[in-house]
Each structure stands twice: as structure tokens, then as C-alpha cells.
Amino acid sequence: MAYWLMKSEPDEFSIDDLVKAPRQTTSWFGVRNYVARNFMRDTMRIGDGVLFYHSSCAVPGIAGLAKVSSKPHPDESQFDRKSPYYDPKADRKDPRWMLVDVKLVKKTRVMPLDEMRTCPELAGMITLKRGNRLSITPVTDAEWNFIVGKLGE
DNA sequence: GCCAACGTTGGC
DNA sequence: GCCAACGTTGGC
Fold this sequence. Notes:
Blueprint lengths: L2 E6 L6 H6 L4 E3 L6 H10 L5 E6 L6 E8 L4 E2 L23 E2 L1 E12 H6 L17 E4 L1 H12 L1
Parallel strand pairs: 1-3
Antiparallel strand pairs: 1-8, 2-7, 3-4, 4-7, 5-6
The structure holds a DNA duplex.
């Protein structure tokens, strides 16, 4: 069992959208970075824990807990000419972009990025490192436990 | 295979 | 809207 932080822009897909989604589940569409794709395609397992993170918004931070709920499958938006995520080089026979489904565990209070930065326990988090833009990053057991504890207080 | 130019991310 | 940092593209 592993843990992950996954960024989403709430203007596009927020924790509230996940609460309202059918089966409180969404396919994690739109990732167009190979490192992030490889995590979903090669490393994630059903049941892995997910920190749902809001980025590019007024209060960036963790907004809820979720879990990986499917094996990898193709991101359909790569084939959709009308989608901003359309990839003209994608091939149905050999899809370039794979994703997993993510299911809500619970919406929490927001743990703002500002607060995360004040916690020495989180100083090593990849997503807090200067210049890091990766939208999916692994989280250690210690980081996960600390954050879940903080969110439960 | 190098690397300059360009595009994107994401906090501020 | 700015801009630092980083990823991708494409000419050579």
C-alpha cells in the first residue's frame, strides 16, 4: 500500500466535484506528463491512498482523501478532438496516456500549502520542493500519517 | 544527441 | 498578470 498526492485545479475538478460524481469516483483525466503517467500506469495499485490537492487557486492545499479504485486504463480525452487534452499523436491501438480512477474517501478541511510549509514533518515532501511541478507525487507513510492526523484534529 | 526556443505549471 | 522552474520540441 502506497500513498500519493494528486493535484487538480478546482476550477476544473474540485473535491466537491468528486463528492457529487457518480459513485464518488472520477478518472484522473488530463495528465500529460510522462512521469505522472508512469506512476499511474506502472506503480499505483488499487487501494493506494490519495491526498486530493487543489492547485492554482486562492488557497492551494489538501482538500480531501481518496483512494485508487481501478487498474490503469486509457485516458479517453486523448482521442477526443474537442477536448483540450486531445493528443493528435495518440493511437487507440497503443494509447499514450493512461490513467487510474480515484474514489472519494472523505472531504476534509483544507490543509493549506502555507500550513504544510510550517510543518517540519513535511519538509521532505516532493511537492513542497522548490520548482517542483509534478502533478502526481509519492507520499511517504510518515507524511501520510502526519497529514491524516492533522486533518482529523 | 545537443540545446535554444518555446510552452506549461503553479505559487505569489 | 508575473515569472521561476522545468518539460518538450525540433533544427542541426
